[in-house]
Design brief:
Blueprint: H1 7-12, H2 14-20, E1 31-36, H3 43-50, H4 53-58, E2 65-70, H5 74-82, E3 88-92, H6 93-101, E4 106-111, E5 113-114, E6 117-121, E7 137-140, H7 146-157, E8 166-169, H8 172-180, E9 186-190, H9 193-199, E10 204-208, H10 209-212, E11 219-224, H11 225-230, H12 232-251, H13 253-264, H14 268-277, E12 281-282, H15 290-302, H16 312-315, H17 319-325
Parallel strand pairs: 1-2, 1-3, 7-8, 7-9
Antiparallel strand pairs: 3-11, 4-11, 5-12, 6-9, 6-10
Length: 326
């Protein structure tokens, strides 16, 4: 694993990645570059990586090297993909929409999971309704992300002007530290961060994201346009391996928790608690999320994050999932 923690660094590495990618134009592709974030939402990638499935499954198609790059949130990950530094990405559907609207050449080829984030407050702060958040400081992912979009929409739908709540953009690590230190009143984060905060006694859940926006899409598997056009067999196998890892995690949750804990350095019992307590579910089927992702484009348009809503055809290529399942 080679972490990328800043957009500037991602852009600076464009030349290096181009030289090491093993693929230019329609040449044989030998190096697959995967972006992801260290959350239990995207555990399908971590399982496939740690069990060697990416390498094993793609070797017959000429892939000799698989490298994954870790990002704190979706925005810098999509900046790296815009720069041509990633071939596939496990990322929230909302930051993908923002990047697509900014010129990213890519499509969603599979779902990853739905729901799975918690809105939390410090235990000392009373709460009965969303109106109690007026004047409070809430840390969440940056503008244009799943959590930011859902939080602002939910506040507005409950009669709270989002401008009356101080919404602070932070990655999960910084936000978890901030609520522990009393620097913010609450957080809205994907799992396992809520399980970590609860285990450490630094806050309690007041709403889960599925309550705030029922059955909402969250993370997706994105493939670059170049990969789709020039190496469709590789994309099909990527989707097939993703399906295998998703189903394996469902059937072997204790092992999945151990794999995740070893990869991230987190406490395995807290990871198991995250699996138990979240309202999310893993799924590879893109048909489950198409309506929700299209709805995100309408919400992001309303928030002035993008210039126009996007269509299902703009966002998805469902053919690879269909072939992988066939």
């Amino acid at each position: 694993m080679r972490p990328i923690t800043a957009t500037l660094l991602a852009v600076a590495l464009v030349t290096v990645f181009a030289l090491t990618a093993g693929c230019t134009g329609t040449d044989e592709m030998t190096h697959l570059r995967i972006g992801y974030q260290p959350s239990t939402h995207q555990i399908a990638h971590i399982t496939a990586m740690e069990k060697g499935w990416w390498q094993e499954d793609l070797a017959p198609l000429g892939i000799t090297k698989v490298t994954d790059y870790q990002f704190g949130t979706g925005a810098p990950e999509m900046q790296a993909m815009l720069a041509g530094d990633l071939d596939i990405a496990y990322v929230g559907s909302a930051p993908f929409i923002s990047a697509l609207a900014s010129g990213l050449d890519a499509k969603i080829v599979a779902a990853v999971q739905t729901q799975g984030s918690d809105l939390m407050l410090r235990d000392s702060i009373p709460y009965e309704s969303p109106k109690d958040l007026v004047g409070k400081k809430i840390a969440t992912f940056p503008p244009g992300t799943i959590q930011d979009t859902i939080l602002r929409t939910w506040l507005d739908e409950n009669g709270v002007d989002p401008a009356t709540v101080t919404i602070v953009p932070m990655d999960p690590g910084a936000a978890t530290t901030a609520i522990a230190a009393g620097q913010v009143d609450g957080v809205f984060l994907p799992h396992p961060s809520p399980a970590i905060i609860a285990a450490e006694g630094n806050g309690r859940t007041i709403a889960q994201s599925g309550e705030m926006m029922k059955d909402h899409a969250c993370c997706v598997l994105v493939a670059s346009g170049t990969l789709i056009r020039e190496h469709p067999k590789i994309v099909e196998q990527i989707v097939r391996t993703h399906i295998k890892a998703t189903e394996y995690n469902f059937d072997h949750q204790d092992e999945a928790a151990s794999i995740y804990a070893q990869k991230t350095g987190q406490n395995v019992e807290i990871v198991k608690a995250s699996f138990r307590d979240w309202d999310g579910t893993w799924t590879a089927d893109p048909q489950v999320i198409t309506r929700s992702v299209v709805e995100y484009t309408e919400l992001q348009y309303k928030l002035s994050y993008i210039k126009k809503p996007l269509t299902e055809d703009d966002l998805f290529d469902l053919s690879f999932y269909e072939k992988a399942r066939a």
